[in-house]
Each structure stands twice: as C-alpha cells, then as structure tokens.
Amino acid sequence: MEDMHCGTSPIVGFRFTLSPMTNDFVEVIKGALEEVDTSAVRMHTDDVSTVIRGKQGHVFNVAKALALHTAKTGVHVALNGTFSAGCPGDSAGDAYLDKPDEQLNHDRTKQYVSSQFALYPMNHPDYMSVIYREIERAKERGVFNESMHDASGIHGDIHDVFDFYEEAFTHARSEDHRHLVMTVSMSINSPSHGGN
Amino acid sequence: MEDMHCGTSPIVGFRFTLSPMTNDFVEVIKGALEEVDTSAVRMHTDDVSTVIRGKQGHVFNVAKALALHTAKTGVHVALNGTFSAGCPGDSAGDAYLDKPDEQLNHDRTKQYVSSQFALYPMNHPDYMSVIYREIERAKERGVFNESMHDASGIHGDIHDVFDFYEEAFTHARSEDHRHLVMTVSMSINSPSHGGN
C-alpha cells in the first residue's frame, strides 16, 4: 500500500505476451529471446507474460526486435502488451537507467503488421483530447488503418508502426500527467492479411 | 470528434485476441465460435481482434465460454483482452440491451487458469484506491496470485476467476466515474503451469 502515489522515474515498462500459433511455440519464443539483444532492459518472464523495463528507447527497440524476429519465422504471431510509465512503484530497477542510449537491435527488414492501440492517460480530465491528437498523428504518419470501438487500427511496415507508437507514447504524457498506459495488440503473418 | 464526452449507456465491451498455440489455430478458434452461444452479444471480428458488446452479464458469460471451450481442446491458449464501459461512442449496438438477462452458456467444467489484470478508472483522481480495493477483493475471494509491476496475478478455477473479474469490473466504476477499462491476460494449458 506504500506505492499509492505516482513516481517521477523515467522508467518505461512493457508487459506482453508473444503467441506464435504453431506447435513449436516454445522454440519460436526461445529463439527470439536468444537472438534479440535484451541487455539494455530488465526482463522477467512468468507463467503468463514477460515484462521489460528500462529507458524508453531500449524498451521500444527490444519490443520491436522481438516481434520482428518472431515474424521472420513465417508463423502467425500475436503480440499483446501494455506500455506504461509514471506510476506506481517505479523505483525498482533503476539500474537500467544507467545504460547508454545507443540502441542495440538494428534489423531493418521490412515486415507488414496490423495492430490496434488504445491510450489511457490516467487522472486527466481532458484525456479524450490527448487520444484524438495521437490518432491525428497516426493519420499524418500514414499508419492509420481504421477506427473501431475502444481502439484504433494502426498498420504498415513494422518500423513505421513502432516509430509511431513510441512517438505517441512520448507525446501523450506530460509533467502534469505522468502516468500513461498504452495497450497494443499486433497481428503478424495473419492468414487474414491477404496480399499485404 | 463528436464522441468526446462519456456516455451513459450500460453497454460493456470486450475486445480480445484468442491465440491457440497450435498449427490448427484456425480450427480451434472456429470451433469455439461455433460451440459457444453468442446470440446475446454483438460480435465483430477483424484481422487483429474480436469485439463482443452487450449487457455485462452476457459479455462475461461469452468471454468465459470461449476461453473454456478452447481450453478443452488441450492446447496452450493465450486470451488477451480489454473490458470497457462508459466511454466513448457507446450508443451504437444498443439493440443488444433488449436481450433477456438469462445467460446462455452453462458449461461448469473445472479448468485451471493463470492470469493478470489491471484496472484503469479514467479521469479519477483517486484511482489507485479503486485498484487497491479490488486487489483486496481478489485476496478475499481466494484467487489472488501475486503482485507485479503494472498488473496483479489472478489464478484458480476459470469460474472463480471470471466471477472475480466481473465483480471487480462492477465495483470499480460508479456514477461519478463511468469510464472504466480492465485489461486481462490469461494463460491456459501452459507448460509452465506444472501440476496445476
């Protein structure tokens, strides 16, 4: 109960499940974790999800690299996760804020992904304006797909999509409203994607 | 941009992805959708997720039935989704609020599940108190597993777990704070679950 006030730590977290829809799901997940350089983030896996925490740039870099590496196996993969910053209990793991900013995963292979996201700026009376502003940004960046209940569709090349997500996550929080949550569901190599 | 104010509709939505980790994922998903009675909710599937919307009791009943039916195939399944109520644009689909309250799926087969959830009461200055109150409720109900960054672990028999989730979702919103979001990640038949 001691962590009921929001912190000021710059730590970003991403708690996710990576679900390769294949009988070999264990090998696919292990392969991604072995091939991706995760040394710049704190990573912990339990029986439901994996969490990575550290500087924002590293968290997004590792998340994208895991998705991309898994995608290259060709199997249908779902990535579902929640990015968060600002609250609560964000004092743990601060060691990883000492890491150099230089990103460690550089694979630029093109890969179509279709995804949906939702922003939850906490304790913010005008949070809908924040959300609509970031949807406008998606349209400007050329990655907006469609509107829907409770989410917005974002698609395109994985690098453009993750660039947008990091930009939106940066701009949707502020000094006055530090606690931000962003959910992302991503579908890769789906049989529904057709010619994309 | 016309939907920037929160609604007063009692509609509950659940947007989710169901990911059977098997080469036969299409058959497993289709089988669940055929076997479960979804006639009391509006359902729409796109290339990333499925959304069900309607009266709260039906939405939770259908969500559990889909998870349980998929579980009975024995394959490892991940269910990731977001329950929401209260905002925005909740006027569409009101027809389903005419449905009788009687639930349509009654399978009581026991099934261990491990899951994690997070509550996001929107525009609520004291949202952390709401969250901690529902974590206390999980402990009282005997389904609390562990605390972690950005989520809380909930596990046990699927019926107890879903009963808790519906109860928490009910109590975490109020007349003054209608817009509530609850994310749930559930792991079923995981090789990590061991003797459970």
TrEMBL record, chains A, B:
Residues 11-90, 114-192 form the Thiamin/hydroxymethyl pyrimidine-binding YkoF putative domain. Signal peptide: none annotated. Gene3D superfamilies: 3.30.70.930. It comes from the Bacteria. This is Thiamine-binding protein. It comes from Bhargavaea beijingensis.
